[in-house]
Amino acid sequence: MAEYTKAQLTEMIIGKLQRNFGRTVEEATPNHMFKACALVLRDIMSRHQIETGNQVWEGQRRQVHYLSLEFLMGRSLEKNAYNLGLLNTLKETLEGLGFSAADLFEQEPDAGLGNGGLGRLAACYLDSMTTLEIPATGYSICYELGIFKQKIIDGKQVELADNWLGLGDAWLIPKLDETEEVRFGGKIEDRWDENGVNHPEHVGYTAVLAIPRDMEIAGYQTRHTNTLRLWDAKSPVPVDMSLYSRGEYLKAVEQQAMAEVIAKVLYPDDNHYEGKSLRLKQQYFFVSATVQSIVRKHRAQYGTLHNFHEKHVIQINDTHPTLVIPELMRILLDQEGYSWDEAWHIVTHTVCYTNHTVLAEALERWPQALIESLLPRVWQILKEIAHRYQGELERRYGSDQGKIAHMAIIWGGEVRMANLCVCACQYINGVSALHSDILKREVFHDAYLAAPGKFKNVTNGIDHRRWLSQINPKLDALIRDCSGGDEYLIHPEAIRKLENCKDDKSVLKQLEAIKGENKRRFAAYVARESGVILNTDAIFDVQVKRLHEYKRQLLNVLHIVYLYQQLRDNPNMDFTPQTFLFGAKAAPGYHVAKEIIQLINSLAAQISRDPVCKDKLQVVFLENYRVSLAEKLMPASELSEQISTAGKEASGTGNMKFMMNGALTIGTLDGANVEMHQQLGDENIFLFGLTAEQVNQRKREGYRSLDLYQRDHGLKRVIDQIAAGFDDHVSYSSITDRLLFGVGGSMADEYMLLADFSSYCQAHKRALEAYADRQRWNQMSLINIARSGLFAADRSISDYAREIWHVPVRK
Ligand SMILES: *Cc1c(COP(=O)(O)O)cnc(C)c1O
Predict the structure, then answer these.
(1) Nearest residue to 258 (alpha-carbon basis) of 323, 209, 293, 212
(2) What is the pLDDT of residues 191-201, one digit of tens each?
(3) Which residues lie in coiled coils (predicted)?
(4) Is the residue at 647 inside a domain?
(5) Residue 414 CA to chain centroid, in angstroms?
(6) Does residue 325 lie in a domain region?
(7) Residue 237 domain-assigned (yes or no)
(8) From 61, 357, 581, 659, which residue has the greatest number of CB atoms within 10 Å?
(9) What tens digit of pLDDT does each residue of 635-651 get?
């Protein structure tokens, strides 16, 4: 696929530097050079995209529209060069021009348009949809500020604005002629025509312009190219307002302010619903612009919307884009003049919903008064959808008010977005086998019984080209050696062939050497960035993910304090050196999560100044966990902490990144860990803790964490120490109170840390025993890598294509 030689790339880059920045190579800063490279690759992808667009048009192919309020893209230069087959040529070109390719890649800011797993999943799926040659478009908001940058000051998280567009916008192509208008507020007036048909008119509204800033997505070893369409918000009001009358002037200013703020910042809450009116504006803004854009292009091609559902599928990533349902209805009813039944048929054969969480606090419920005032026409349509559904439920369940109340779309003054999705979507899927079962058995049980065929599972996956081949080139080379080439890059299940080498001692030694090198490289990076010296002779035990109580970083802390106390009691004990690495952002308003970050930093400081721990025990909190940091860390990790309370983590994808890079998992039977265990067997994973069913049972029986605290002396000592704090004299009794007594209506130890504590400690012991026999460990590591093909996003996207989207994929 190397379409360009070094000489050609050199000329293209020099040309960009001259035309866009008026610089010679000698005058170019690294920033100039980064932008020039990005623009050169952007041109290539744009050319491919136009070809793809023409083929999709001519073939009248069904298209996928992936709507997500988050796309956690990370960096693109190295990735795009890799997919275009130009990575080596680009590196040589840059070295030839006197620049270090590695340094230049480091210049690029992460496009942090997401919080964590859900946003990163959307990014991985764009790669796979493109590589599998599916005509697909991603849609989101072009946030001016991505997920905040995290600084740790005096052990506490401080948030800084992430202004990524200065350099990051090199990838974006504004398409001003494809601007859409989105309308807020005002009111609806009925307009009856001579045939007695109502054409509701929206008056007194505030308009916001949605301007596409397109990012092209290159696939691997294909010219097929897709687009991520990021909507920017602008006011339609002209800048000079001096001539406006007083009333209009104020309205104009208000309009301008409202427009600009919509695309200002990503909401930094992960797995938590924020009922803010600005968030609702963001959702409708992006959904309305997207639907209008799809409809406009469809009408231009087919001249009718009657076949809309045959040519498009709209996948909604969690409930955040749910307003796509009434918005598409609105256009079909008000603009096309379709009957309710015609419109409803089209909508319900177009839209599909992926559920990402069963946590009650994450389920979106919008106050009806807010929707009514902000989106008056959408509100009318929602009321009608809810009313008809209510009738259906009453026919189905008669007087069973409990069921009806549970499934209603509008209830108690709130609009429940998940119930709307379940009512309107053609398919509903969970993101791991266990999670999809919980949806069917618990969350949407009655809807499942009424229409079992609508419920599917698609287990999440990750872009294995990025998360293995690109970030861990030595491991990539070893896999090629052992599996007869690079087949696994296109057919991820072929990575299984690595298992043929599981008894080859030299391969196992190489695997160990690669891990060692990756650890040292990561340690050198940490030393440069923060001055902290990691002990590379210790096992790297890693927990990186958003900070959330259900993810149980605190359980990890309990275990480390337990180890610390053992070491204090008996400084000469037999002790396997362990380095515990944490990385996690807490939502700025999530106080407990922030306290846990501070606790980790207190513990890290305590252990680092205690000579007893020297070369044995180390705890490090890595600042600002993000995609580009994960890419450095995964290849260096040895033990992967996936320890959520069973039943709470929908899938996890961090778990898959670790597995693919040869880390072993210590984990609960939660999310996709269940399927990892199925692949690996008991002997290649360290399982512990209650199952999801046992968690439910213990709660039904009346779980009492205080009893466990009083009964288990070691556990009591750990908790008492955390309550008292360390030498920095910060007490963490507010945290331990939650474990023992519960606070503000929540039960004591809601996430069952104490119930799983001893089982967790034992699993750690088993892990260290395995680590002591290095050959055995290396073999387990190899088996983990070899059996990770199932967790490639290519497999997930093939599942979506076959089961949900009904579109063909590249063979
Ligand atoms: C993969 C990834 C996540 C998701 O991690 P989980 O352990 O599945 O929660 C979060 N943040 C970043 C930066 C990631 O790359």
Answers:
(1) 209
(2) 988 988 888 99
(3) none
(4) yes
(5) 27
(6) no
(7) no
(8) 659
(9) 999 999 999 999 999 99
